[in-house]
């Protein structure tokens, strides 16, 4: 079974991605990650609050640690809200559905992503921001 490392807040970023990113290497890696995760019927997903397969090609990843310290807070918040095991075997779209059922709304998206510099070009944030529940 294919195995991926995914820091929790990237469950949301993978949905919001519209081709923007830090550089070409980063965006290509992110695109490949999304495409290869979605094509599998079931994958082993290691959820965490640390650098993952997407961070691997990011210029902000310095020796395995993101220079933006607040991303860990976003990861922790999401893991707490979703109350999932750290290692799950799931279809990637099913994980997205679970996350969206709890997080895709105005209140939660602003709590989690309110300080993200990409939120104005993030499809997930723009959609979630309009949902009041
Ligand atoms: S607003 Fe930022 S942190 Fe939130 S999902 Fe979009 S890109 Fe990720
Ligand atoms: S900014 Fe940080 S959390 Fe986001 S992809 Fe880069 S290293 Fe990972």
Secondary structure blueprint with pairings:
Layout: E1 3-7, H1 10-16, H2 24-39, E2 43-48, E3 61-62, E4 65-66, H3 70-82, E5 87-90, H4 92-103, H5 106-113, H6 123-128
Parallel strand pairs: 1-2
Antiparallel strand pairs: 2-5, 3-4
The site of one iron/sulfur cluster has 11 residues, from helix 1 and helix 6.
Describe it for me?
The protein has 133 residues and is an alpha+beta fold. The protein has one domain. The chain has 6 helices and 5 strands. The protein has helices at 10-16, 24-39, 70-82, 92-103, 106-113, 123-128, and strands spanning 3-7, 43-48, 61-62, 65-66, 87-90. The strands form 2 sheets. The chain has a 3-stranded mixed beta sheet. A two-stranded antiparallel ribbon has the order 3-4. A hairpin with a 2-residue loop joins strand 3 and strand 4. The radius of gyration is 14 Å and the shape is globular. The mean pLDDT is 97. Residues 51, 54-55, 58, 60-61, 66, 68, 71 line the site of one iron/sulfur cluster. This is DUF1284 domain-containing protein. InterPro entries: DUF1284 (IPR009702). Pfam families: DUF1284 (PF06935).
